[in-house]
Design a protein that fits this description.
Layout (H helix, E strand, L loop, with lengths): L8 H8 L5 H45 L22 H10 L25
Length: 123
């Protein structure tokens, strides 16, 4: 009989502890059927909850667009255009470091043949 069963938890349990009678086998089968039905119910409930969550989110997005709010780009960019910088990036870095807005960068390791005269504070 075991060779006719699909591999799974029920077949494994029968291999480890064979049923002594037909009544015991029926009871064990009923327990595993209840377990499978419970799992299926939970999976369906989760799918329905995900659908509801998706509907709620679409409605919120629709409302935010209708209210004139900007949606954030999926890549994380908040704006489509930025104001161009008018000063050097190195100077901006110095100001941010002196105002303690960013941590002090670690000194990068350089190659032995690298020209030490060519250096950019920003990078």
């Amino acid at each position: 009989m075991l060779t006719a069963l699909r591999p799974g938890p029920f077949a494994d349990s029968l291999c480890m502890q064979p049923a002594s009678s037909l009544d015991e086998l029926k009871k064990r089968v009923a327990k595993y059927m209840q377990l499978e039905e419970l799992r299926e119910f939970h999976n369906q409930a989760r799918v329905e909850a995900d659908k509801e969550k998706g509907k709620d989110e679409k409605e919120r997005q629709g409302r935010s667009i209708n209210l004139g709010e900007r949606r954030r780009d999926s890549r994380g960019s908040q704006f489509s255009r930025y104001t161009p910088l008018t000063i050097e990036k190195g100077r901006i870095l110095d100001e941010a470091l002196s105002a303690e807005l960013i941590p002090t960068p670690r000194k990068a390791s350089s190659l032995e043949n690298a020209d030490q005269k060519k250096h950019c504070r920003y990078h």
